[in-house]
Specification:
The structure is a homodimer of 235-residue chains.
Chain A: E1 3-4, H1 12-15, H2 26-35, E2 37-41, E3 46-48, E4 56-70, E5 76-82, E6 87-88, H3 90-95, E7 102-115, H4 116-125, H5 127-153, H6 156-171, H7 185-192, H8 196-208, E8 212-215, E9 218-221, H9 224-231
Antiparallel strand pairs in A: 1-2, 2-7, 3-7, 4-5, 4-6, 4-7, 8-9
Helix pairs in contact in A: 4-5, 6-7, 6-9, 7-8
Chain A binds a DNA duplex (30 and 30 nucleotides) through residues 155-157, 184-186, 194-198, 200-201, 204, 216-217.
Chain lengths: 235, 235
DNA sequence: CGTGTGATTGACGCCTGTCAACGTCTGTGG
DNA sequence: CCACAGACGTTGACAGGCGTCAATCACACG
């Protein structure tokens, strides 16, 4: 049950220096503020689902969102996580296609919805905004290409090591030194592209090799350089 | 050794109805015609390489180009093919990053180079052009997400069947009914994400199951529906 | 005719997915 | 307070897909 929240509690959209909306003119900003709809979501809520039409883009103010595709036997493949400052749903919105992913809340979130016509209007009226969108897409496309190469060429072991490092880089540590994202073993598997059991086995192997510490779902990296060597980074 | 060719032999850029340049104004078109550089490439030529700076985008007038990333042990992972009407190198050009892929000529090609500043100028001055770029990127991003899910969840057998169907859909048949793209077994493997020997074994298996015909590198699909069933298509 | 590249086949073994059983924890309802 | 269900985590057994290595063949080319 998403709750609508006061617009002013979502002040992110245009103010942060790395916001996708940072190049809007003051007038455009005013329009944005009037039109956007800020919503509060709980863990497990779904923002949009595969094969549905999306009527705008979502800008994440707070929380973590899991973006995944449903594959064979309904097995999820996690494509990305979105957190503060990220936008989701823009691909389908801008291409006019149906959503090819599902966006599900992983950690309670505040998300702004911006209608598609407004986005299109800004793209056409403001070249800098268009460029920001394009650069945002470029980044994702580059990451996707990397992902393809890695998943195609690396072993599960290498990929898991790499995923742990990436999660650490993206989400940092909590106060206790554990990676600040809470994933089930199954979700880790769906990110790495393997079976849950394989993740469990490799995690305990990493643990007995003194590379990580485990405390329930919490993971702490204690030998980053060796994990990097295992992950076999390239390019 | 690329040869420069007469500009007028590359009339594609702005005239075809599905060209990325179809929404340029007559004035912009004039500028494009003056600035673009059309080049003729031979099989094996490289248009740009990973980790190099790209100074513009390339529009394919004729030929086939292989886009790949170099992974572990220099094993290539083919990300895509580009053919008439496609643009390549735009991701790095627009993001200002170094190229994350290499573009190599598979079939003799004619390619137009358009300098980055011109592209940026058009994006900023012409919202429709910006939207076309965005939609082009959206399409690729969607395909990349699909690719990730498939490579992560499907067996090599399923992926090979699917790749054959995709190649058939993208390149059609030659006069003799063979798929109109000429790939080595190794390239097929680099596309599927597997070992060369696995491709060879599965191809002969498909052949003895009467699903395909083989004549050197040429492949003919003779039981499409069964191949589709094997490929286990979803979404 | 030698050389080199690509295609093919066989042998071998490890990685990894699958199945099954069991343990752990949490929340719910009697 | 206890029993139970259900979700999640863990471990073991097992087989088979698939990668690797090596040898051989096919074919083009200088």
């Amino acid at each position: 049950m998403p709750d609508f929240i006061e617009p002013h509690t979502c002040a992110f959209c245009s103010q942060h220096s790395n916001s996708i909306f940072r190049h809007l003119t003051p007038e455009e900003n005013l329009i944005l503020e009037e039109s956007k709809i800020c919503t509060s979501y709980k863990k497990g809520d779904i923002i949009y689902s595969e094969n549905n039409k999306i009527k705008g883009i979502y800008c994440v103010n707070k929380g973590i969102i899991k973006i995944f595709k449903t594959g064979i036997d309904c097995k999820e493949q996690i494509i990305a996580f979105a957190k503060t400052g990220d936008i989701v749903g823009y691909r389908s919105t801008l291409s006019g296609e149906l959503a090819c992913t599902t966006a599900k809340i992983l950690e309670d979130a505040e998300v702004c919805f911006i209608p598609v016509d407004l986005i299109l209007r800004f793209i056409k009226s403001n070249g800098n905004f268009a460029m920001d969108i394009i650069q945002y897409m470029s980044k994702e496309l580059g990451e996707a290409n990397n992902f393809i190469t890695e998943i195609a060429q690396k072993t599960v072991r290498e990929r898991l090591a790499e995923v742990l490092i990436k999660l650490y880089n993206d989400f940092g540590n909590s106060s206790e030194g554990y990676i600040a994202i809470n994933l089930t073993r199954e979700e880790l598997a769906n990110l790495v592209g393997t079976a849950t059991e394989s993740v469990i086995r490799l995690l305990s192997e990493f643990k007995s090799d003194q590379l990580i510490e485990l405390k329930g779902r919490k993971i702490k990296l204690i030998n980053l350089s060796k994990l990097e060597r295992i992950s076999n980074v390239f390019g």
